[in-house]
Amino acid sequence: MPANSAVYYDSDQARRPLLSEMRNLWDYRDLVRLLVRRDLTVRYKRSTLGVWWTLLNPLLTTLILWMVFGNFFRFETPGVPFIVYLLSGILLVTFFSQSVIASGSAIVNNAGILSKVFVPPEVFSFSAAVAAAVNFVISLIPLVILQLANGLGIPWTVVLIPIPVLSLLALGAGVGLLVASAAVFFFDVLDLTAVLLQLLSYLTPTFYPITIVPDRFLWVIYLNPLYSYLVVFRGFMYEGAFAPGWNFAYMVGSALAALLVGIYVFSRSWRNLIAVL
Amino acid sequence: MSDPVIEARGIGLAYRLARSRPGTLKEFAVRSLRKQIHYEQLWALKDVTFRVDRGEVLGVIGPNGAGKSTLMKVIARVLPPTEGRVVVRGSVAPMIELGAGFNAELTGEENVLMYGTLLGRDRDHMQDRLPAIAEWAGLENFMDVPIRSYSSGMLARLGFSVATDVQPDLLVVDEVLSVGDAVFQQKSRARITSMIESGTSVVLVTHDLELVAGLATKVMYLDGGHNKGIGPPDEIVAAYRDGLL
To answer: What pTM, to 2 d.p., does this model score?
Structure first.
């Protein structure tokens, strides 16, 4: 006879969203791992291009932008070949967009499960963001090859790459959870988000050097959190240097803030979300 | 007497009706400006109170749209009640839809791991149980095949096998005893019966009044989201048949 008579579920239990969500994520870490793997296998198994499919978009974008801005406009990036500067930026911004869109659509995509079985819903959004991070790490391979081919080498600071990657994962998952809440109610939210992400990417110095930005517009770039992530990332990836302290602070601060706000808002609105899923 | 497995007091659950709800942000913005936003609520459950003790089998009957499935979801923690309170003690195996979360592209084995983990079980435990699960479902030779190629009967067998692989304190069953062929129905009912005999409580939704009369220790008649009566199976089933309630 089953002996466990502990309370499994009490609909009135005190709701401490942050704490209980964090614990949920930990309790369901096996599921996160399986979901990430499912995400990656389902995406790659059935396509002939396999893993290259994920790389195709950023590589093509980089090629075109390299042609237009590196050769037509002749943008100069002192100390680093334009193509390396460009690809590092495109990859990072692509990672962010993918994680926001994937985790933002994860709840709607898994409505069939969430309305049949109790699973902490954040698990799906979080797994989608982790899958985007894995894709990003794979996409660093062509960047490494380009750096070696251009004689830049690989500085020791690459071992610190997990810091900006984990921060960006937190930012993407947090923003993704906000998008996910809204996307349950309004399905056009995801389209709108894609447009906003595109605009944000133009405000990030991926294909232009920060030096060509006029002083009176600099604050716009500085305000964009992605700029700080990119500066830190490029520093570690090929400059072998540490970005200014305020960039680190803005990066970590925005990551934590987004994650906490995302989880809080999402778990507070879950009651209304599940009723319409 | 130990604490009840389920204690539900004054449960109500309201859905917002889709037709009154703006589906897009654009529509929402436009209608907000014209002040045309008002929500219609539908109470799928209203003031439902009951308890299920250890080893009891509660059958829930009622016409379509009575709120039976909604009640199962409230018990299984899927839907938080809009009002009232529900307390469930012990482990729960939800069988609201067999194989919720099955992915056609993944193999039988991968799906078993995924489904079991979705149900809150340990991945290593699921790995250990794989052979037994495959054997009970009679699918030993199909576990490495993507389930795209499974028949609906095979899917049901696999889902049932995973869901009932552990003995829970409470089994929440929504119509899934009527899937599959006669042999499988017999086999799955035998498994549930043996669980009941060793102390598992069950909440069972079905339109099969014979099954309810044979299996349940008490029956609730649900209509329009209201509990129209709860009591001994014969009495409630007979009353439901006669349309007296």
So the answer is: 0.90
